[in-house]
């Protein structure tokens, strides 16, 4: 299998962490792709032009990241990350959607900032809208923290990758000050080898 992506993408990181949980790391070749430069190549695999894309050994292209995570979970050998005695599967998927929505807003904001560094072509309205979406999303994550800390699930993985991405790309948000309990839990998780080896700053 090939996972097309980049080391900075939190969506790719989620997929990689699911694969690693299931002992699929060896059978997964990670192929770096530049979303701006390799656009035609990427669109041929995913018409939406986004990473990650998973190419299965049968040549099937799977996107987006939530679907890739689901797929890897079904072929893996470890305990399912979408099945848990305390959290129904729909709740795990809703919390994953919450995290991915926060990431969508943060990624859009980051792309706008990086592509228009002088700020001239930026839309202040959209920059504010994305910042609001991130803030209300993180507030909802903090309110759900007790649901996810006791078990390793897709939701707990997504909480960590999402909040670490905010530290990386939007440090001015200051979520750690507003939610110290969540920050303490995230730091415990980030000390684990798998999170360390997938740090987007590396
Ligand atoms: N909903 C998608 C989001 C993926 C996404 O936004 N990926 C970004 C990189 S982090 C991307 O490929 N952006 C390129 C573009 O939009 O042109 C998923 O979960 O896979």
TrEMBL record:
Instruction: Give the CC-aspect GO terms.
Output: cytoplasm
**Which CDD domains does the annotation name?**
GST_N_3 (cd03049)
List the SUPFAM superfamilies hit by this protein, alphabetically: GST C-terminal domain-like, Thioredoxin-like
Q: Name one Pfam family in it.
A: GST_C_2
Listed InterPro entries: Glutathione-S-Trfase_C_sf, Glutathione_S-Trfase_N, GST_Omega/HSP26, Thioredoxin-like_sf
Domain named GST N-terminal is located at 1-80
User: What is this protein called in UniProt?
Assistant: Glutathione S-transferase
| Species whose genome carries this gene | Aquisalinus luteolus
